[in-house]
Amino acid sequence: MNIAGFVHALLGLILAPLLPGIISRTKAIVAGRKGPPLLQLYYDLSKLLRKGAVYSRTTTWLIVAGPIVGLSAAIVALFMVPLAGRPGCLSFTGDLILFAYLLGLMRFATVLAALDTGSSFEGMGASREVFFSALTEPALLLGLAALAIPAHSLSLGAIYANPSATGPALIFVLVAFGYVFLAENARIPVDDPNTHLELTMIHEVMILDHGGPDLALIQYGAALKLWVLGSLIVGFFPSNLGAALGGMAALAVVTGLIESSMARLKLMRVPVLLVWASAFSILALVLVMLR
Asked: Are residues 98 and 128 in contact, defined by beta-carbon separation less than 8 angstroms?
């Protein structure tokens, strides 16, 4: 067993809910407010797990299975992603393909659970989520392909063992993954995780009918996804485990600063932003192939 990868996964399981707290506290400091505690998500998860769940008579087993499948996919992805130049606990040739599919499975489970409610609002959110994900996934896959070519491997561990081998193209992949990080985690400028206006929601509108333990699983899975995609960015900077954890905290602070300095984009402009992400990944891929 890869001990370093197991330790990283264990730390991710424990510390992932801290990242949303750092983002919220950063935004509060910039706005001159006290803000919620850093451990607010831990308190919320504890409270939700003690509550019961209420289901509509129109729903089926999908609304229960959605949060479970989504969280399971996030946990497996966490065990695959490398950090501090060390491969994940589950590392094998071709794992980057499975990694991308796990993120897609997580989204697919949430969309199915949203559609199962029969709510027009949740159906609207699911439609937006699927549309924007169709623009985000190429940026992620093409960026991973640009990293895989110089590494001569389809393993995330081999790719992140020496990301500098990608050369100048690494900068474009980093920018593309930054866009992906914000979009996949429903952050500003793509989405606003704190909005309560159904007509402007994307991700949050899909979970309006979830409550109690189901909502806790969804929120914890979202925190793990934040950690997993953040690891892809922090992994570009070779370091030890302590510095990598500091990098994760710094990434959360930068995310809070971004959300404090700009407003959410109009929905019609979000696809343009995501196409730019794919363009940066394509440019990185072309540069790598021409070397």
From this structure: no
How many angstroms separate the CA atoms of 78 and 220, rounded?
13
Domain map of the chain by residue range?
Answer: 3-290
Give 121-146 pLDDT, tens digit per residue.
Answer: 888 889 999 999 999 999 999 999 99
What is the mean predicted confidence (pLDDT) over 147-169?
91
pLDDT in tens, 174-205: 999 999 999 999 898 898 877 766 666 788 88
**What pTM does this model have?**
0.95
Q: Which tokens in the block code for residue 116?
A: 């199962």
